[in-house]
Amino acid sequence: MLVSSSAIVLSKVRYQDNDLIIKCLTRDLGVVSYLVKNISVSKKSKNKFAFFQLLNIIDLETNFNPNRSIQYIKDLKIKYSFKSLHTNIYKSSVVMFLSEILSTIIHNEIQDVELFDFIESSLIWYDNSQDSSTFYLIFLMKITNYLGFYPDCTNMHFNYFNLEEGLFENSKNSKYVIRGESLVLFKTILGIKFDSNKLPFIDKMKKKDILNNILIYYKLHVDGFKDPKSLKVLNQIFAD
Predict the structure, then answer these.
(1) Residues near 213 by Cβ (< 8 Å), separated by ≥ 6?
(2) How many CB atoms neighbour CB 63 within 10 A?
(3) Which fold has domain 1-81?
(4) pTM, whole model, 2 decimals?
(5) Residue-range domain boundaries for the chain
(6) Cα–Cα distance measured from residue 86 to residue 57, given in angstroms and rounded to the nearest whole number
(7) Would you place residue 43 in the very low, low, confident or very high pLDDT band (cuts 50, 70, 90)?
(8) Sign of the alpha-carbon dihedral angle for 99, 100, 101, 105
(9) φ, ψ (nearest 5 deg) of residue 209
(10) Cα–Cα nearest to 112, from 136, 83, 148
């Protein structure tokens, strides 16, 4: 079955000497793995290694066989050429971090157009933004809306956020809660939209506090979720 679809590269691994296995979130088929052969044999190869940088947005054509665990790409092209995502050291660190998380939490081999469109539009916004140091925090919270565990914001005026239940409460009913200044910061992130005229400045220690709480939230709601290996790199980059 010939299928054409946009795709976002979630991960890539070398296979043998000259091949790649790439895991993509496609707009039409959900998560699909592809074998890309002879990636580094010839400079004239149509399957250029640069096409498969993490979180690249591509258009591909494939003879899709639902009985195969790994598919083969017939043709591909870059859908959107990023200007800064892979050249800016801060943004490239965020890309590595988010791709690792997305590769871990998205497994569905079914179409999810809303999820795909959210990730695609968010990455394009980030690429064009000059004021984006809190992007990854906002992104990690917004995407939970598509994964089924976005916080219940009914009582945001309450003094505790229960990370286990995903809601605001007026008393401490769990050992996993956010309160005090950390809660103020968490509420700030929940209230931000990417199309805001200006994202708020949050210093590095406060961003680290927010991220730690978000990662705890993921651990409580995503089976088998662990801190990404790239977290250390991200913290080092944003500590400068």
Answers:
(1) 163, 178, 182, 186
(2) 12
(3) OB fold (Dihydrolipoamide Acetyltransferase, E2P) (2.40.50)
(4) 0.92
(5) 1-81, 84-240
(6) 12
(7) low
(8) positive
(9) -65, -45
(10) 148
- The CA distance from 183 to 44, in Å, is 54
The confidence score (pLDDT) of residue 105 equals: 95
CA distance 82 to 88: 11
The residue type found at 225 is F
CATH superfamily of 84-240: Recombination protein O, C-terminal domain (1.20.1440.120)
Q: Which two tokens stand for residue 35?
A: 């074998």
Summarised one tens digit per residue, pLDDT across range 95-119 is: 999 999 999 999 888 899 999 999 9
Tokens 């790409």: give the residue: 73
What are 64's two structure tokens? 């899709």
- How far, in Å, CA of 212 to CA of 218, rounded? 10
